[in-house]
Amino acid sequence: MPLSDTSIDAMSSDIPFSVDDTLAVAIAHHQARRLDDAAQAYREILAQRPYHALANHNLGMLAWQQERAAEGLPFLRQAWSINPDEGQFWLSYGEGLLRAGQPEQAHALLTDARVRGLDGPELRALEARCGAALAELAASRPAAAETDEVVRLYGAGNHAGAEQAVRALIERFPESGMLWGMLGTILQVQGKPALAVLEEAARLAPDDAENLVGLGNAQQDAQQFDAAIATYERALALAPQLAEAHCNLGSAYSAIGELAAAIDSFDQAIGLNGDYLVAHLNLGNCQAALRRFDAAADSYRRALALAPHDVDIAGNLIDVLAALDQHDEAAKLCRAVLDVVPDSAAVWLRHADIQRALGNADEAQAGYLRAEALGGDDLPLLLAIAIGLQLTPRPDDATRLYERVLALVPDHALAHGNLGVILEDRQDFEAAHEHYRIAIAADPQFIDAHHNLGICLHRMGRSAEALAQFHHVLQLQPDYQRAHISISAQLSEQGRLHEAIAACRAGLAVLPGDLELTGNLLFCLSHADDVSAEEIAEEHFRFGAHCAALAGPLPPHTNERAPERVIRLGFVSGDFNNHALANFFMPILEFLHRSARVQLFGYYNKEAHDDATDRMRARFHVWRDIAALRDDAVLSLIRADGIDVLIDLSGHTNRNRLAVFAHKPAPVQATWMGYPGTTGLAAMDYILHDRHTLLPEMAGQFSERFAYLPACAPFQPRADLPDVNALPAYTNGYITYGSFNRINKLRRPVIALWARLLRAQPTARLMLAGMPSNGQYQHLIDWFAEEGIALSRLEFKPRASLCEYFYLHHKVDVCLDTFPYAGGTTTMQALWMGIPLLTLAGDTLAGRSAAGVLSQLNLNAFVAHSFDEFVERGLAVTARLELLSDLRQSLRALLSIAPISRPDVIAAGLEGAVRHMWHRWCAGQAPENFEIEYDLVPMTELEVHARDAARKF
Fold this sequence. Notes:
Blueprint: H1 9-12, H2 17-31, H3 35-48, H4 53-65, H5 69-82, H6 87-99, H7 103-115, H8 121-140, H9 144-155, H10 159-172, H11 177-189, H12 195-204, H13 209-221, H14 225-238, H15 243-255, H16 259-272, H17 277-289, H18 293-306, H19 311-323, H20 327-340, H21 345-357, H22 361-375, H23 379-391, H24 395-408, H25 413-425, H26 429-442, H27 447-459, H28 463-476, H29 481-493, H30 497-510, H31 515-525, H32 533-551, E1 567-573, H33 580-592, E2 598-604, H34 611-617, E3 622-625, H35 631-640, E4 645-648, H36 658-662, E5 668-672, E6 686-689, E7 705-708, H37 728-732, E8 736-739, H38 748-760, E9 765-771, H39 778-786, E10 794-798, H40 802-808, E11 814-816, H41 825-832, E12 837-840, H42 849-856, E13 863-864, H43 867-878, H44 881-896, H45 903-922, E14 930-931, H46 941-951
Organism: Pseudoduganella plicata
Protein name: protein O-GlcNAc transferase
Pfam family, one: TPR_2
């Protein structure tokens, strides 16, 4: 029976009334054998007073009365330790040990009780039962020498001998849970089935915590994770201090995806044993799976300190360091591991990945090839190497690796899909198309292959099929971002601007805040004639505010504030290849490369490389391929490079990294030449341009301050262009207007204005070049017809070779510019071929590109500011054929004296602008508008004549 509150007066005298009252209720329940109610009441007392001896004692007694003697032992021991002077506590604790099957521990306890002077019939009866239990135990288990022999064999690695010996003992002592447990352990270490044996061990010795841990391990091996968890928890109820049980419980939780519970278990194991290698390692694995990379790195470091030469642990640490963009530390660790295992293909692969992340393409390539040489035909390894080489980018090596993969697995979807990308970059569209088809057949859910097939179809000129393919991608995955971008881009390219804008907004409804989709929307809006400059600016500013919110507080810069030191100058672009931007930027780069006052860093954001890429790379002091890097990795790279001034060359065009600029990795940032408008970023300090195009009154449209150069970008014509011919109107007897703009700029209002000019000159004609080769320009014919212009007055020329393209200029007297997005490259090419351009100056930067050039050349007679003035000026300049002819022959000389044709002048202006920006930052001054002046040089006689020819208009 339970002790009552009057049994030990000394202990109950200080019990508060609320606890005393609860104790009385508990004892009443206990005496009435309402055991569950009694247990609940005792636990309520212990929740308030965990050292309440009587409640601990009675709860322990209650457990053995419910045939759960082992569960009561902690409470009986607690009561005994609180008041060892109470004899009943010795007796009850001894009874509990005996009932829990622990007669040896009971015998030791009773011996101590005798020493303390305890005696009486109850003690003597308990001693007699304990002696009988010890005798029975001795008869049921082998002698220590016999089990020691099993242990010796096991320790010597003779597992078969140990198994044979323990099985012989089990034949003599079949009820020994200890022996069954030993057999289970020996079977496990040999890789033999052990579950049934360990279940028997647990049945025979249900209170043996170590046996239960072994059973839990066997259940894990059998993928019975829920059963294993229950078994480990049973073991921990018996032995909470058993670190192995906590660790293995963590492993079971991890296996079923309960990572938070797993982490708690590993922490408890480490708390009990700080040098528990497996617990540190598994804790790191769980933290890495939850993307808690800092914590994972700490766990792996502790594990590696315990096992310094463990390659797998080092590999795990390398991976999380890479995820944290701590590539320098990861690279050092990789080299240290390679010193230990120089022939590990897996470590060479990691080394190559890290070097690629650091922008060291050549070292990455060497690492990948070394991994290939060591890896044999390991399929996952070959595929990983191929992907790494493709991203480096080393497409030739990647192609060879993908072909090796396909030789092993001919229908490998990923290999076919990635090989298709390489072939498409090489413009082998038919072969790429075939690989995409095979990839999709092998894996119908391969979403990237579906999308890349659409891109390929578009580049093959099969636009309708491409658009249908992109919509099919969205049926498979409505939130696939690249398909939304491709749909909007293709619609924009086809001149279906409002549909493109709607497609951008539809994508943003599914992917709110997506930066690339927002950039596409901004680009489309800049082409729209029904959107005001203020509305366009406001959309850009919203983009900038969203980027700023994502970036959060900007960290301070630690660059040395030395105004006259060498400036580390970085350029970020996805167009360091055979692209229009390269034609403008490369001449500047040639001059900057010679300067001793700047160190040039190129950050290239595209996988494709060509001869133009190689030429530009040779002019940078440091080159980084960043296309495969996440924004945070690029940020770390730029900061590690110590960039002082960082210049964006993309704006909101394809392959931009404006999200990186939003975090301001460099103390001074500027945007230049890639996009005719603001970035919208508060973190972008300046926009570099010229004062003829970017007017001071446009400041409200920009988040940046204006840094005026002598010219925005240089025009360097090809050396093999045809000569300027005579004015065609002399031969034809009528004026031929021309347009070389891309078709998506030929909007309905543009056609209406051009038609007004043609109606005012009934004999004039219009040639439109650069039309789609598939003839998809009927809408233009229809629009002209609606304006009363017959097809006989129009001439459509398809896209042609560069040589044919320039010879087409020989057919044109005056070019007509588009609006609200004016011509850029086409304007300069026309002027070089002797053809002035009639433009309608807009109120945005995109609408003033042609007006800015004409203003520099003093050709303001060709710049209109209204629809009516456009027609008036067109009639005026074409009415004076002699002057038009003279200007045609003078335009090349006129261009040659303008800053726009002087890359040396622009490069000097850029370097001066960068130095001025740097001076202000070093002085702690905010960005401001400023201009770099251009000093005129004496003109030749031909150049004077060209200037005068322009002035006559």
